[in-house]
Amino acid sequence: MSPITSDPTSQTEGRYEVFCLSCGKVFDACKSPWCECITDNPTLRCPHCGKCFCDAGPEARKSFWEAAPPALWRRRLRNFCIEMGQPPSELGNPIRRPLVLVADDEPDTRRIAFRVLEGMGYGVLLAKDGIEALALAKAYQPDLVLTDHMMPHLDGKHLCRRLKEDPETRAIKVIVMSGLYKKDSQRIEVLRDYQADDYLTKPISFEKLGEVLASWLTPATAAP
Predict the structure, then answer these.
(1) What phi, psi does 25 have (nearest 5°)?
(2) 3.40.50.9100, 3.40.190.10, 3.40.50.2300, 3.30.70.250: which CATH number matches 92-216?
């Protein structure tokens, strides 16, 4: 399910009232903050309870955006093109430790991951595919690799295998992310056959990501 409009008149040029499925309260989606989940399609957070609707499913999210007024579409475009912007460099921020290498072929996902991880206090490296991630891992020796499952040239699970088979990089922790494969059998396959240290299903909430990273890495100091 997804948030639904409270009534037909709630969709105006600058207002889009929806129900929050977590707390049941109505809020204006045109003024709500974006979530900080690691996903290809971020959603909005309820200002009352702070919950987003990333878990609502693709059809529900599609219905939400199909009914959205032009003002919300413009805000979405502005958010990704201006507010989030690019990280300081395409490479990221490899100076701070612990250092996390993010490999994902979606530019928006890399931007979100950079902002969230840097805010948590981690150093961040960015790679747009597995081949680039492999080279960066050898050059910078990150403490952890957070990689998407499906990528061109070299996917996440084979990147993991290459890292674990190389004596220079086998100690690096590798977490594979996927928005497509959610069955326990698929998770077990990646952990067992490709030697991944962990497997996360997208969307990944800010809280969940923090918990998982804290379980694998030494504490990071939050950025000012």
Answers:
(1) -90, 155
(2) 3.40.50.2300
